Automatic annotation (TrEMBL):
GO terms for biological process: thiamine diphosphate metabolic process. Residues 6-91 form the CYTH domain. The gene is THTPA. InterPro entries: CYTH-like_dom_sf, CYTH_domain, THTPA. One of its GO terms (molecular function) is magnesium ion binding. This is Thiamine-triphosphatase isoform 3. It holds the Pfam family CYTH.
């Protein structure tokens, strides 16, 4: 079975003067890399909502980033990177096949996008209420 890579990112915002300070310390720009990623998801954004990111990187192939080990503390995000296409397919398709959207959903997406967006927002709000003991839980 192909093993994925583990990526741990720590994001930071460089302050004003960071580049100048790095140069003062002897830092130089060794090289610049430019690439283009194309991200894929369902029309309902089911991958993004599950914190999964499927992309095809220009000149590199496919990659699926999904949450890594739970309980990792600190100012970073840990993702498992899956790059073997069979493993990506297995990660995305073996647990459950996505069902085709209803005719009404397709109609709203195509001809009433504002109403569709509102439906997504209401649905998202309803999901947040589940399990909280709120009286509106009966809506689900």
């Amino acid at each position: 079975m192909a093993q994925g890579l583990i990526e741990v990112e720590r994001k930071f915002l460089p302050g004003p003067g960071t580049e100048e300070r790095l140069q003062e310390l002897g830092g130089t720009l060794e090289h610049r890399v430019t690439f283009r990623d194309t991200y894929y998801d369902t029309s309902e954004l089911s991958l993004m909502r599950a914190n999964h990111w499927l992309r095809q990187r220009e000149y590199s192939g496919w990659e699926l980033k999904c949450p890594g080990a739970a309980g990792v503390l600190g100012p970073h995000t840990e993702y498992k990177e899956v790059t073997a296409e069979p493993a990506i397919v297995a990660q995305l398709c073996v647990p459950a096949q996505e069902t085709a959207p209803s005719k009404l959903i397709v109609y709203l997406q195509r001809f009433r996008p504002q109403d569709y967006q509102r439906l997504l927002e209401v649905n998202s709000s309803r999901e947040r209420l589940q399990g909280t003991g709120h009286p509106d839980n009966s809506l689900g």
